[in-house]
Amino acid sequence: MNKSASRIGDITELELCHYFLNDGYEVFRNVSSTGPVDFVVLDINSGELTMYDSKTANVHTKKDGRKIIYLSNINEKQKELGVKLVSKYGKKILTDTKIEL
Questions:
Q1: Which of 3, 18, 38, 70 is the most core-located residue (most Cβ within 10 A)?
Q2: What pTM, to 2 d.p., does this model score?
Q3: pLDDT of 67-79, one tens digit each?
Q4: CATH of the domain at 75
Q5: In this structure, what is the dihedral angle of CA atoms 19, 69, 11, 15, given to the nearest 10 degrees?
């Protein structure tokens, strides 16, 4: 079954929320399909709140077998607000725009 880019993005976001919930955090999702923040994570021990924009990883495999993972950048408004970029590849949580494995 082919999935649209929007559906793949929805799945990525839910997987990330599951990851944080499973790790003991409280997670609050944006109820709108638009906005600078996809979800907020609360560390109940420290009270720290982190705003995240989830991105689906784009994976490119080099001829030598190395994998390069690219994530879209956050925009200027998100930077102003302190929103962090987050994605998932396998069981790894990613927070940089370019990762080499």
A1: 38
A2: 0.85
A3: 888 888 889 999 9
A4: 3.40.1350.10
A5: 0
